[in-house]
Amino acid sequence: MFIKRLMNYINGYLRIVVEGYYIERFINICRSKQYMMWNIKKDNDIHLTLNIEIKNFKEICRIAKKTQCKIKIKSKRGLPFLLNKYKKRKVFALCLVVILFAIIFSSNFVWNIEIIEENGATIENIMGDIQEAGLTIGELKSKIDTKEIINKVRLERDDIAWMGIELKGTNAIVRLVKADEKPEIIDEDEYCNIVSNKNGVITKINAQDGTANVKVGDTVSVGDVLINGWMEGKYTGIRYVHAKGEIEARVWYTMNKTIPYNATEKQVTGNTEEHYALKFNNFKINFPKGVSNFKFYDTIETENKIRLFSNFYLPISIVKTTYQEYEEVQKTYSVEEAKNLGIQEIEAKLESQIENKENIVNKNINTYENENGIDIYVTYEVLETIGTNEKIVF
Amino acid sequence: MKKNRMRKLNKILEIPEEVYSDVPKISLIGFDEMIIENYKGIVEYEEFFIRISTYKGMICINGYNLNLETMTNDDIRVTGKIESFEFERITD
């Protein structure tokens, strides 16, 4: 039934009104000639509306004349009438064709590069390297050789474990897995010294292989040799070894900051203004011209690429600029307030540097009051194992 | 005689009766839709009353807003609020 209706729509049909006293006869004659009729409805005694196919219209007119009925066309429906309506609108049809071709043409290019990094790792400057390797916005899709680009990028960088490029529509999806930084491993067979990697005071030194170069209580700085990679025997002379040992030292972490008593602080008022702009590659059209009316403001720019489907990007993007108003508020701290504020800030920073907080031995805070502000020095004393291997170069 | 034999054959083959004979088949779907197969023609058609002639007699349908939804060569679909229907047999 549905197919029949569809065919009717494609071929076109008429909804006509038949007026007369012999309507039943009219219907029966039409039926006996096997004309298709549907949605027949009688409104009152002499009024009948029904749908008929176009091709039978002339015959039906004749039958109506025979049965002394009048025929009026109520509406013309279907595809032929619809097309007829648009026949005169040539510009419209032309534009439709042009747009269609433009979309087909633009689908041959890459208009967006999406970088997905696994496990949320961030790889710096990867966009630049990818573009240098040949995957740029506006490049023909057929010209892009994904294998070659992958090879080029991987040669350039050594922090990528795996890389894949997928061209989907006009979107190039680059998937990356970051490689762990490889630690510098020195073979057990090779001779090496143990060298300090931090400044501190030695509290414990225990040389398993090699000769200790420093004593407990010595101050060492970065680069000082802690355990020498040789051993001296009475009869054997000097023998080189792979130095091994444990060294513990007190390491100091210090940071200082000056907190002024009078500070101007930004305070967001909550008023925002949004400006939109259309952007084609580098050509930008601003809709409301000019800059914000606010006196002090931050600008936040977000760019949204227009896309037809999920992976069909167009070379047009909408740039939304949000102006956020803020006020400059003058703030005065008392000495105590400034001190607390500074200490809190520095402590938070220092504690993020220290790996193991259980080893913190001592905390030292010094403050010096000035005219304009307060200088705060915070020192953490931490017990840490120090030392890295360094190859002996002969 | 020949007709009788055909009837027997059709019964063996289990062909529906309305296919090989002129007997009308009336199906009602709810109270709003009625399909009549094997009909002859429409005798009267008003919004509230339809008379359809078949080879066995007349079918009269009473109701409101009666529409003839689709009409093909051998079946007709009546939609609308059907209140009652009755038959007028042709007596041989």
Describe the model:
Chain A has helices at 2-11, 23-32, 57-66, 79-85, 90-106, 126-133, 146-156, 335-353; strands spanning 13-19, 37-44, 47-53, 70-77, 112-117, 160-168, 171-178, 192-195, 200-209, 211-212, 219-220, 225-228, 230-233, 237-240, 244-260, 262-280, 283-286, 297-307, 313-332, 360-369, 373-385, 388-391. By secondary structure, chain A is α+β, with helices and mostly antiparallel strands. The longest helix of chain A is centred in the last third of the chain and has 19 residues, at 335-353. The radius of gyration of chain A is 42 Å and the shape is elongated. The N and C termini of chain A lie far apart (95 Å). The mean pLDDT of chain A is 83. Chain B is α+β, with helices and mostly antiparallel strands. Helices cover 17% and strands 58% of the residues of chain B. Chain B contains 2 helices and 6 strands. Chain B has one domain: Immunoglobulin-like (Sandwich). Chain B has a 6-stranded antiparallel sheet, with no helix packed on it. Chains A and B meet through helix 2 and strand 2 of A and strand 3 and strand 5 of B. Strand 2 of chain A pairs antiparallel with strand 5 (57-71) of chain B, so a sheet runs across the interface.
